[in-house]
Each structure stands twice: as structure tokens, then as C-alpha cells.
Specification:
mainly alpha, 94% helix, 2 helices
Length: 158
Amino acid sequence: MDSATWLYIALGIFLAGLIIAIIGVVLLIVGMKEPMKEIKGSANKLKERADKLQLEAANLSHHANELKEDIQMKTEKVTVLIDAAKGTMNSVIDLNASVRAITKNIASRVDHDRENIAQVNEWSNGAVKLLTLWENQRRTESNRPTYTSPSLRNEKQY
């Protein structure tokens, strides 16, 4: 066989291989059409889910920001309330201190007044004794017979 024949046989084998390769590629492409549609549909569904998740995440972020603002406002109100309670507590403490000071002052005055009361009792007892003595003297003077002249007695009878 000559080399031209071999060349034709090689060319035929090459063309047969090329045709088989082309048919294989066409069949591969045709066979991949359905799975590609399914993949495309799955990708679209995945994209829709991702969009929904993104929307949900945005809503959650919005709600989280609202809650954060609400918590900040309530924290400020609670802080004001706590400050007011501390102020009230301080006022009660100050009031308690004032009451203690007043009570202490009253107690010291009462102690001082006890001394004054004792003095007043002494003076009043002395005054009572003087009054009693004076009344006793007066009674004794009124009980003493007084001398009257007989001539005056006679005049009185007229």
C-alpha cells in the first residue's frame, strides 16, 4: 500500500473521529440544556430567597434601630427617675438630719428648762411659805383680843 492510501485512511479516521467528537459535543450540549434550565431555575429561586432574606434583614435592622432608640429613651427616663430618687433620698437624709438637730436642740432646752423648773419650784415653794407665814400671822393677829376702853363700849350700846 502506498502512502497516499494510508493518507486517505488516516484522513477518514480523523474525519470519523471529528464527526464523533462533534456529535458528542452536540449531544452534550443538548443533554445539558435541561440541567442548565434547572440550575437557572434554582439560581433564580436562590436569588429570590436572597432578596427576601435581604429585605428581612433590612426590616430586622430597622426594628433593631427602633428598639435601640426606644431603649435609649427609656434609659434616659429611668436615669431621670433614679436621679429623682437619689434627690428624694438626699432630701430625706437632710430632713432626717434637720429633725435630729431640732430634737437635739429641744432635748437640750428641756434639760435647761428642768434647771429653770427646779428654780421656779424653789421660788414658788419659798413664795408659798411666805404666803403661809403671812396668813398665819394675820390669823394670829385677828385672834388676839384688842383692848377697847369701857367708855367706848358704853357708847356703842346707845
